[in-house]
Amino acid sequence: MAAVTYTSAGNINGPTFTCPRCNRVYAYPVDHGAPVRCECGWWYTNLGHGKIIEEFRPRIGGAKTSGPEKAAD
Ligand SMILES: [Zn+2]
Predict the structure, then answer these.
(1) Is the pLDDT score of 51 beyond 90?
(2) How far is the CA of 65 from the centre of ligand 1 (A)?
């Protein structure tokens, strides 16, 4: 059985993308493909032509959800 993971650095063939926030290294996201979802919570999506958009999407259950917490009376 093959146990191949795509999350470990050092096992990447081809171009890499380094998260500018935590310096983790990933396989470069393909054009219009799945985003790089960094451990630090930032997603990097390749829109094509080398344009990368960044979004902060903390993991569910990871970071505390934002929003006002109504105090009980
Ligand atoms: Zn990161």
Answers:
(1) yes
(2) 19
Alpha helix ranges (H) inside the chain: none
Comparing 5-9, 28-32, 66-70, the range with the smallest average pLDDT is 5-9
What's the gap in Å between 61 CA and the centre of ligand 1?
17
Q: What CA–CA distance (Å, rounded) separates 8 from 6?
A: 6
Give the tokens for residue 49.
């032509």
Contact 9, 25 (CB under 8 A): yes
Task: Find the 71 Cα to ligand 1 centroid distance in Å.
Answer: 34
- Is residue 49's pLDDT more than 60? yes
Q: Which pLDDT band, with edges at 50, 70 and 90, does 58 fall under?
A: confident
